[in-house]
Amino acid sequence: MVSIVEQRGSMRPTARREAAEAERGDNSRFMTRDGTTLLVRDTGPADSGVTVLFVHGWTQDHTCWDVSVDALPTNVRVLRYDHRGHGGSDPALAGTRTLEQLADDLAELIADRVPEGKIVLVGHSMGGMTLMAMAERHPGLVDSRVAGVAFVATSSGNMHRISLGLKGALGRSVPRVEPILRSLLQRRKKGTLPGNPRVLSPAARWLVFGKKAKQAHVLATVRQSLAAHPASVGGYLDAIFAHDRRVALGALRDKPTVVMVGDRDRLCPVEHARAIADELPATDFVLYPGAGHMLMYERAVEVNSRIVALVGKALDASVAG
Fold this sequence. Notes:
With 321 residues, this protein is an alpha/beta fold. It has helices spanning 66-71, 99-113, 126-137, 139-145, 168-172, 174-187, 197-208, 215-227, 230-242, 270-279, 295-298, 300-320, and strands spanning 2-4, 29-31, 37-43, 50-55, 77-81, 118-124, 146-152, 257-262, 284-288.
């Protein structure tokens, strides 16, 4: 099913989940099997039959989902976390800067924190790629527990061919810049870029936002990027460029899914979203005119309504089960 959404909206924060936003004691940290500590935010009723698990993208952190959390029904549990090398989590050591490792981290977190009940997965950009890698590496977990998946501005492969929307020779040269960018990031020390996010906001606005982006959202995106560990995020570039998981999507064919993309997305353009939808014939494919890569900010109302619809289906399945 294909729909095109024209409305431009932004979510105004409400206070109805404020009490649940407090950390649950020592549950704010999770240690993976290799000793890497991840920052986790666990809110909502612990005994809910449905847990929504948000997975953020490259150079971002769990706070990119703030307005989405606020839009959810109060009777569902919500888990957000920072990937290794991002936000408040430990750096990703050499050899662990892979989508396979991120998928295993997610599977470990689910096994430890959500051993029972239905799960709705929401992944943005590299977060969506992580969900695909988990479907590939942990198909039993996905088959038995996942009740819905939202792919937000992401890709199942061919990231080594992106042009950032640039034309001709300039666009074809973009992949050749990747080794240079990776090297610069891996050598840069944290905090060596300008401390004022406004200095970097014009570049961020061009790269990951579409028309009429709010400055507060651009600045939030830059702040998250500045908090990421440079060597870690630099290392993930190789993994993103090598990502090829269209076949892995087969594990999700029977799951309620939605694929969302903006027609001005320079990083994961429309054809990448269509490739995902082609592997999931029953999915809802939603195109947002004028929007870029940061859909959870640019089209908050519309994106959240799609997530809430998935959660509603999972709640119904939880009651029926």
